[in-house]
Amino acid sequence: MGLGDEKVERPVDVVAEADRLEAEAAAALEEQVVVKSVLYVSGDRDPRAGVPMPRGRRLLQGDDPRLPAMPEAPTLADFFALRFGPPSHLLQSARRAEKAGCDEKVVLACLLHDIAVIGFIRADHGFWAAQLVEPYVDPEVAWAIRMHQVLRFFPDDEAGYEYPQMYVDFFGEDFEPPRWLVAEHERARKHRWYMTARQITLNDEYSFDPNAVVSMDEFADVIGRNFRQPREGLGFDGSPSAHMWRTIIAPTRSL
Ligand SMILES: [Fe+2]
Ligand SMILES: [Fe+2]
Description:
mainly alpha
């Protein structure tokens, strides 16, 4: 099935069913309180103030009833379908890489490069995304995903990469990359996989066509050949990033 690409007219009983499920979820949350993680509210609140704990009520210590249930052994496709935001930017980037004749590794890297933005944490999104997928992909793919975040801020005339106008719009003319970003860039320039990460930024640049229709099915084979899906499901295989996938499954679990 495609992801959000098809428009289906919803029959009335589906709406009623959705209302019923929503009411059920609300009732379940009457019983169990969500205490938001510090990271979710830090900035909106001063983290030093602490998070107020409710008295006399149970905390949610399982799946969030407001979110769709995940399968026992979730796959990457399940996360795209049930936990991630709209993936069109990723699908378009991957398609662009494929059309440009890039290696399959690069196509996969493009498909996954912003999964942290659409499903986890925005700040340092390349680093978080790389960590999520590292146990399941070629080391070159993980490295490239990590570094695309850095390379986006630095033009490379030889490779045909300009500083994106979008970043001027987002961050202003006067934005200067902080020193850790400059240092990461210097390290990346000397790395043997530099061009792999650079290719993500080259395919990233033009990937925001709101009218393009691309489906996840188009990349099922690329994922099948290049993403080692654990039998136990993402989150349950004891890998170094399993906890991160579990947090995405149940982001409001108390502990
Ligand atoms: Fe990115
Ligand atoms: Fe991107």
